[in-house]
């Protein structure tokens, strides 16, 4: 009988220790705006090196040349055009031939893309202490054959909600620009 009581006490102690370890973990908030994991950093369907049949493929942008051109995007829930330029600047406007647009409405700024595919957008946002001027994303270019078709930005870190919201929409390729 003593052995049964001792075993019961040992089992209860082990269960209490296990339960306390489980309860000590942080609660997972599935409704949090923060992602559980970072964005993918590999192509979903890599583009073939040969220029054969025009298939849909994607690539992670690793240099500015990968996204240079004019793209159609939502800006403050309205269609707008953004031009990513080879010199690492971007400008926006309400039509492809009106870029840059009214500077009181459309932002301009700079961007960089590193070899790991991290796109950093730097906007001259007028916020206290220069907070939220930079946002980091993974830029994914969707192509049909060799032709860009769409640009998707997956947020890594950006505390400026308007930019994060605008970049959440897929951008559509318009052309090479000027």
Low-confidence stretches: 21-25, 28-32
- Summed over residues and divided by their number, the pLDDT gives a mean of 79
Biggest sheet descriptor: 8 strands, antiparallel, barrel
Strand content: 25-35%
- Taken in chain order, the helices and strands follow as HEEEEEEEEHE
Keywords:
178 residues, alpha+beta, Lipocalin, eight-stranded antiparallel barrel, 2 helices, 34% strand, extended
Q: TL;DR?
A:
The protein has helices at residues 2-23, 161-167, and strands at 56-60, 69-75, 78-84, 89-93, 109-113, 118-122, 134-144, 147-157, 171-175.
Structure description:
The chain is an alpha+beta fold and 178 residues long. The chain has a domain at 56-175: Lipocalin, CATH 2.40.128. It is 16% helix and 34% strand. It has an 8-stranded antiparallel β-barrel. A hairpin with a 4-residue loop joins strand 5 (109-113) and strand 6. The protein starts with a helix and ends with a strand. The model is unreliable at 21-25 and 28-32 (pLDDT under 50).
């Amino acid at each position: 009988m003593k052995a049964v009581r001792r075993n019961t006490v040992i089992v209860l102690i082990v269960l209490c220790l296990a339960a306390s370890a489980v309860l000590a973990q942080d609660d997972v908030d599935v409704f949090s705006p923060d992602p559980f994991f970072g964005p993918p950093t590999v192509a979903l369907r890599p583009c073939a090196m040969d220029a054969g049949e025009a298939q849909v493929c994607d690539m992670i942008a690793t240099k500015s040349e990968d996204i240079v051109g004019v793209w159609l995007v939502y800006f403050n829930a309205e269609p707008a055009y953004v031009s990513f330029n080879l010199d690492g600047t971007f400008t926006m406007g309400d039509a492809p031939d009106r870029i840059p647009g009214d500077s009181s409405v459309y932002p301009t700024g700079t961007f960089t893309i590193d070899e790991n595919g991290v796109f950093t957008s730097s906007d001259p946002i007028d916020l206290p202490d220069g907070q939220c001027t930079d946002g980091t994303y993974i830029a994914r270019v969707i192509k049909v054959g060799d032709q860009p078709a769409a640009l998707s930005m997956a947020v890594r870190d950006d505390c400026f909600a308007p930019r994060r919201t605008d970049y959440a929409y897929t951008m559509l390729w318009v052309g090479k620009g000027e």
